[in-house]
């Protein structure tokens, strides 16, 4: 889990993207986009991601959440949320972004293929374009580390779900 900033040129302000990536299938399970990014947003995102992956119920095996040492992640409230959800929170050492390489790599892709090539005139426009990119990234963008499949395609293949939408690539 990590935060990326974007800029809205037409309104001369920044927005925040808080992303949670699953390192198994490289999918962005969910994200928060807003004009602020507080502890409550990080805790809510964490809960939403657990629900999306059917890991919210009592007794389900919980993932480890890895973050940097941003103020949202070192707060007592985020720590209490992780304890309540029975999730191990692993913080990387200061000045070692390589320890959170998967989400940092995603942020580079996000910058190169979305944020850096668009000049947003409004928050609504930024939200629309970022949402479209997230859909593309999860459902269509091929990853060499996933045998040239999109993240959701790889996830569905691994868990044996209906594969009728998978395209053969030669």
TrEMBL record:
Q: Which InterPro entries match?
A: Integrase_cat-core (IPR001584), RNaseH-like_sf (IPR012337), RNaseH_sf (IPR036397), Transposase_IS3/IS150/IS904 (IPR050900)
Biological process per Gene Ontology, one example term: DNA integration
**SUPFAM superfamilies named among the record's database cross-references:** Ribonuclease H-like (SSF53098)
What GO annotations for molecular function exist for this entry? nucleic acid binding
> Start and end of every Integrase catalytic domain?
1-159
* PANTHER family linked to this entry: TRANSPOSASE INSF FOR INSERTION SEQUENCE IS3B-RELATED (PTHR46889), TRANSPOSASE INSO FOR INSERTION SEQUENCE ELEMENT IS911B-RELATED (PTHR46889:SF4)
Name this polypeptide is given: Integrase catalytic domain-containing protein
